[in-house]
Amino acid sequence: MKEISMGQAAKMTSPNPLVLVCTKKKDGTLNIAPVSFFMFSSFHPPVLAFAIGKASNSGENIRRTGKAVLATPGVSLKEAVMAFGSAHGSQKDKLKEVPIALQSVEGSDIQIPEDTRNAFVISLMQTVESGDHYLYLCSIDKVVGDETRQALFAWDGYGKAAPAREG
Ligand SMILES: Cc1cc2nc3c(=O)[nH]c(=O)nc-3n(C[C@H](O)[C@H](O)[C@H](O)COP(=O)(O)O)c2cc1C
């Protein structure tokens, strides 16, 4: 075993789960950003956690509104995931630049991509400082799923979105 960098470690733990953080901006429009720092942290009650850079628009929105929907993207969203992950909602309307089909989820007024395998309607419980990211601990208010959709995962850190291989 040899010592390696965090970047190399992130590549070696691939694939990692991938969610699209869907939030409402100040002007009421939708913002979407991919996040691979995601985990469940309790079953009873249902809680999840994710971490996103301190300067992200998604973080700003969830701290302001206390609400988000996290959606696991389907395979048709490969290019959109990379585009949404390389622009800030504070600087542009990502959905206008890269339009995708959207759907509504019961229990939320935040829309999510139509090609979604799972969606978690969440409420912010706690924000924890974590170096250059904030860690958001969120109660899961509702979960919906469509098992016919194949989900994308994050490969090579943030480098690539692709399905996971089994076996
Ligand atoms: C596949 C993928 C995974 C990503 N995972 C994370 C993550 O876990 N945490 C993070 O801070 N940024 C992550 N990013 C980068 C953010 O999506 C990116 O900083 C985005 O521009 C933030 O958008 P916002 O400012 O509109 O919130 C990821 C990007 C990609 C393409």
Provide the fold topology.
Layout: H1 6-12, E1 19-24, E2 30-35, E3 38-42, E4 47-53, H2 57-65, E5 67-73, H3 78-84, H4 94-97, E6 102-103, E7 112-113, E8 116-130, E9 133-145, E10 153-155, E11 160-162
Antiparallel strand pairs: 1-2, 1-5, 3-4, 4-9, 5-8, 6-7, 8-9, 10-11
Q: What is the structure about, briefly put?
A:
By secondary structure, the protein is of the alpha+beta class. It contains four helices and eleven strands. The longest helix is centred in the middle third of the chain and has 9 residues, at 57-65.
CATH class call of the domain at 19-38 and 71-155: Mainly Beta
Could you tell me the number of beta strands? 11
Distance between the termini: 25 Å
Output the number of helix runs.
4
Instruction: Give the name of the CATH architecture of the domain at 19-38 and 71-155.
Output: Roll
Average pLDDT score: 97
Q: What string gives the helices and strands in order? A: HEEEEHEHHEEEEEE
Low-confidence region ranges: none
CATH fold label of the domain at 19-38 and 71-155:
Pnp Oxidase, Chain A
Tell me, what's the shape? globular
**Which ions, cofactors or small ligands are bound in this entry?**
flavin mononucleotide
Strand content bin: 35-45%
Q: What composes the largest sheet?
A: 7 strands, antiparallel
Percent helix: 10-25%
Based on CA atoms alone, the radius of gyration comes out at 15 Å
Which sequence of strands runs across the widest sheet? 2-1-5-8-9-4-3
Structural class estimated from helices and strands: alpha+beta
What is the H level of CATH, i.e. the homologous superfamily of the domain at 19-38 and 71-155?
Electron Transport, Fmn-binding Protein, Chain A
